[in-house]
Amino acid sequence: YITLERIQERSICLQQVVQERYWYSVIMYIFIYILSVTFSLPAASILTVAGGFLFGIVYGALYANIAATIGATIAFLIVRHLIGKTIQKRYSAQLIRFNKEMHHYGTNYLLLVHFIAVIPFFIVNTLAGLTNISTWTFIWTTSAGIMPASLVYAFAGQQLHTIESVKDIFSSNIILAFLLLTIMAIIPTVFRRIRHMKRFQKA
In 3D, which of 133, 152, 140, 131 has the Cα closest to residue 49? Predict the structure, then answer.
């Protein structure tokens, strides 16, 4: 099981492996990360911290983002093909309004839930798989939506031995930054709703 304490204990050994076999380390890191996201293991944030420690802020965030996006997409497609299509067919009449909502605002909703980083990753992947949102939209909104958090966690990896838990990463400035990102994701949806209401009233 992956914990912050175990990574801290093995930090010197892990650094040595990265120095001696860099690309092997990158591939293994991405592979482990993909597995953790695909199977909904609660290790993504810790792995991103580890990536920042081992590969630096930029590359750590980049590798984590690639792996998380791939893992999330696999989980999304599994849900979609196992039960998503069945639910869409069985409850097609009841889901008409919901599907229209996702068609118009799905992009903003996905960005929003990733920016606020409150809803667990696996829940977002599962719920998205039950919708009619396109795979490409899911991929790019996941990658863009988790990048701010990836950078924050990777930056925290540079202070690996001074943090005791993932909660220590979020200072008031970091929380404010995420709040601003959330507002930026909400604004387009609000304006689109206002325009839609005005058109409806005119009609």
Answer: 152
**What span, in angstroms and rounded, lies between the C-alpha atoms of 49 and 16?**
17
Q: Which of 58, 54, 45 is nearest to 26 (CA)?
A: 54
Q: Provide the domain count of the chain.
A: 1
Q: Can you give the residue range of the structural domain that contains 99? A: 4-202
The distance of Cα 33 from the centroid of its chain, to the nearest Å, equals 12
Q: Which two tokens stand for residue 112?
A: 């929003």
Mean pLDDT of the chain: 83
Query: What is the rounded average pLDDT of the residues 138-155?
Result: 90
Instruction: Note the maximum CA span of the chain.
Output: 68
* CA 142 – CA 113 distance, rounded (Å): 10
Q: How confident is the model at residue 32 (pLDDT cuts 50, 70, 90)?
A: very high
Q: Are 40 and 122 in contact (CB under 8 A)?
A: yes
Q: How confident is the model at residue 53 (pLDDT cuts 50, 70, 90)?
A: very high
